[in-house]
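Consider the tokenized backbone below.
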């Protein structure tokens, strides 16, 4: 789990919806809780990091979106903010006795994962992009045919020698 200010994917998306390229400043970002100095889920990217994220051997700079190209051409005057927050909740499910005695443990996983990218030229946001998983659902299943005796032989043998 990555700590952050949002309670849901929708909350994070609403925050990013308030960011308007070529209008939103770094001061506005701080007011929205997107400050790499005080927010644990905001990574500050330098020019080289931004270049690696957007350029590859198969893409020419002409194919990049104008704001991305503009930021990369600005070199040191360009920086990026990478925002990431993941929330996963785990809940045990299934038969209590099978779980308690360690025969079979089923855990349901629910949550979301938000990722956002901002490019800032000078003190103004010039590009924003979001991605992620608005809804994560899954399950972990652990089976131990010997239940509470699983692994007992190993520890007993190591104590004998």
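A designed sequence for it:
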């Amino acid at each position: 789990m990555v700590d952050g200010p949002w309670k849901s994917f929708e909350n994070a998306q609403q925050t990013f919806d308030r960011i308007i390229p070529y209008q939103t400043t770094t001061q506005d970002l701080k007011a929205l809780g997107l400050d790499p100095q005080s927010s644990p889920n905001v990574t500050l990217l330098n020019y080289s990091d931004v270049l690696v994220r957007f350029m590859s051997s198969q893409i020419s700079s002409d194919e990049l979106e104008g704001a991305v190209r503009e930021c990369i051409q600005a070199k040191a005057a360009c920086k990026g903010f990478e925002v990431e927050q993941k929330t996963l909740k785990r809940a045990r499910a299934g038969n209590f006795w099978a779980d308690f005695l360690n025969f079979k443990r089923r855990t349901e996983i629910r949550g979301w994962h938000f990722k956002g990218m901002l490019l800032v030229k000078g003190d103004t946001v010039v590009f924003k992009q979001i991605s992620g998983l608005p809804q994560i659902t899954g399950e972990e299943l652990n089976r131990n045919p010997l239940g509470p005796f699983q692994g007992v032989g190993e520890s007993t043998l190591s104590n004998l020698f």
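The CA atoms of residues 6 and 14 lie 10 Å apart.
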